[in-house]
Amino acid sequence: ETMISLKKIEKTYKMGQNTVHALDHVSLSIEEGDFVSIVGPSGSGKSTLMNTMGCLDHPDSGEYVLGGSHVDSLKDWQLADIRNQKIGFIFQNFNLLGKLTALENVELPLIYRGTKAKERREQAMASLAQVGIEERAEHLPNQLSGGQQQRVAIARALVGQPSILLADEPTGALDSRTSEEIMDLLIALNKEGRTIILITHDLHVARKAKRTVSISDGKLYEGEHVL
Ligand code: ADP
Ligand code: ADP
């Protein structure tokens, strides 16, 4: 089943006299259970593509179908709901709230959904256990290593049972050994059936996915595009 279908997505930015084609007729189809990396250098359009797929931003034109819903035609408030239901985000810098414990950070998406406190706690603990860090539930982010913080962030991304995980440079702030561990965790989550999209400028990281697509000057290519 097709999880994501992008057809001829365009996004341009006007910079004075110049028009930047951040996304230039991008078409991409991702099946349920796939693990796709999107690789490209700085300025190639990765963030713009991530923002579009993550329902954070509207394309100028083109069609975007996510899990059967046409999201290109939705209003901003509808996009926010879709985002919360269907997408788990993982970021380079973890984006954990510093005053909340690991467990409380993982509970956040469930608070937004209105899940009751007891269930929230149980689901968040299960999610922490799934990424192998339940014994750190009561720690604050600054009491955890980078790799542990990223595990907490992955638990938060998983807790609402999203259709896809969208990871933007998830190993960008980690040393190479910890990066390997986080990539192994993503590979294991994919083997359990989760659809994962990984955005990176690092070809070594990109090659861990089942499928690689490349972006260069806003254009998308199947495989590793030779620059
Ligand atoms: P990447 O994430 O691969 O570094 P981006 O998607 O951030 O690439 O940017 C793609 C192109 O669009 C770049 O040329 C960038 O300068 C331009 N761009 C991105 N966002 C904006 C913006 N808000 N305003 C103007 N130009 C932008
Ligand atoms: P990344 O580190 O993921 O490549 P960037 O540093 O390219 O991200 O961009 C971060 C954010 O800044 C993007 O979401 C984009 O919208 C915005 N941005 C990128 N380039 C420009 C630009 N030339 N002018 C304004 N905003 C930009």
TrEMBL record:
Q: Would you identify the family this protein belongs to, as annotated? A: Belongs to the ABC transporter superfamily.
By its UniProt entry, which CDD domains does this protein fall under?
ABC_MJ0796_LolCDE_FtsE
Cite the entry's keywords alphabetically: ATP-binding, Nucleotide-binding, Transport
Transport as a keyword of this entry, yes or no, is yes
Q: PROSITE patterns given for it?
A: ABC_TRANSPORTER_1 (PS00211), ABC_TRANSPORTER_2 (PS50893)
Q: Which InterPro entries match?
A: AAA+_ATPase, ABC_transporter-like_ATP-bd, ABC_transporter-like_CS, MacB-like_ATP-bd, P-loop_NTPase
Q: What is this protein called?
A: ABC transporter ATP-binding protein
* The keyword ATP-binding is annotated on this UniProt entry: yes
